[in-house]
Each structure stands twice: as C-alpha cells, then as structure tokens.
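Check my protein:
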Amino acid sequence: MDRGKKPNKFIVSTNNRIYMDLKDVIREHALPFLPAKSLSRFQGVCRDWKLQISTPLFAHNQSLSFHAFSGLFCQSPGDPPSFFSIDPESYGVPDPSLKFWPDPVDIRASSNGLLCCQGWRDRAYYICNPVTKLWKKLPEPNGDHGSNLAVVLVFEPSLLNFVAEYKLICAFPSADFDNASEFEIYSSIEGCWKISGEICFADRKLLPRSGVHVNGVVYCNARTWVEKDRFHLDNTVLREVAVDQAEVVYAGDNLVVVQSGGKIFYCDMKTKKTAFLCNAADFATRCVPYVNSLVYI
C-alpha cells in the first residue's frame, strides 16, 4: 500500500543531522584523547580534520587530555638516543635521535610530552617537544652542577596556559660541604635560575641520574620510597634474566617497565602479562618515560 509513497523528508533530514552531529562529536571530543603520531595520520582523513588538528587550540586540548605512557627514550653514554614504544603504530616521534638539534644532547628528564636535554659541548639545558621539533635553550645556571646530578622536569598542563609553564629542578653534590646536596630551580614563568637556600645533609646520598616527580613531591633518592605493592614478572618471557636484579624505570597507567640483564620489559598489571620492549646496552643506559603530546613550548 505504501510502496508508491515518497520517503518522509523530515525523517531523512533528521537522520542527516544526527550523522553530522556524531561526526562533530568525534572531531571535537574524541580526537584530543589520541596520541600525536595517530593524529598526524588522521590529518589525511579529510580537510576538516586536518584543519582541526593543526590549530594551536587543538594542540592545547590534546596536551590536557592525553597523558598515557607512550614509550621510552633510551640513551647509552656517548650514543644518540633512540625511542621504543609499546605500540609503534600509535606512538612515535619523527626524529627519535633528535638530530634536528645543532649539538648532540643527552636526555635528562621528561614530563607530559616535554624533554629536558643537555648539550654535549656547551652543557646547556634545553627543553623541547620531539613531536613538533620545537626547542628552547635555558639560561646558564648559577651553580656548578657537575656530572653527578639528578634532574627532574615538572610540567603539569593547565587549562588556562596555552604555552607550557614548567620547572626544572637540579640536585647536585655541594662544592662547599661534604656529603651534602644543593638544589637549583629554573622557572619558565620567571625565566631564570634560583639556588635554593635548602642544603640536604643526610646519610641518604644523592643518586646521580635519578629523580621523579610524584604528587607534587620530587624524589632524588631511592631510599625515600616506601613499599606499597609487589608484583611478579612472567618468567616464561624473562627466561634467564636475573629478575631479582630488575630495576623499575617506569610505573603508572597499569604498566610497570623494568630493566634487567641488558633488556627492558613491561608488565601489564591488569592482565599480569609480561612482554619484551627493547634491548638496553647496559645498566648505564638512561631510560626516560615519554608521553606522545602536541604540547606547545
């Protein structure tokens, strides 16, 4: 009876509006939660997506929304860095060796998409985003940090700050007092270094190349940690690796990344599965966790 009737224009129009609304929702509210490498590929989906992803506002929203562990920058003394990801199809940077710098650098620290590096020749500190290849050279510090220092980069994305505001905390052995550590802090807001009046006199010696920022506190000594939990690695994957000598290089996002026997593994705390990530030359290899972010410097 109804075969000869024309389609209801109102229904067609309504369905079309629903489709368009869903497309806009994905573009506006789903894309910012994706890593930078995936977003680079998705710029080829359509012109609207390319324009959306390439705006400074989108980069700001992505840095606020995406904080997942993306992989490790690993670097042995005297060698350029390399990047290893738990999902190479989704996470990555265009130049893992950081060759876009005029001077070779050592990676010192990382925080929410930003890297802190130090030049081999000038020993200057640099802050960069390896995705955008944008970098900034910091002023020369006031103190002599030497080579046995601990460096922590603190960057917490803020809704109101379109340009990254960060602090670099350097702990180094005191030149004036034995068995003491001093601290110098660079603030991007103030644009200068300040030596802290605090000097640490303790039996807890500074661990070079250490340092982590957790819940507003910077730790530069492993002995300040309190055991919260224990986990077991899958021996079928580790095989002959000395599990009791494993060193944790990252813990978070339900992942634990460990280095042992010249190899690096990661354990999924939900599935209890352990998988191989990459080879590390030795325990001198510096492993820095990284978040694949579009944060603008």
Notes: The chain has two domains: 9-54, 64-290. Helices lie at 9-30, 36-42, 47-53, 56-65, 235-238.
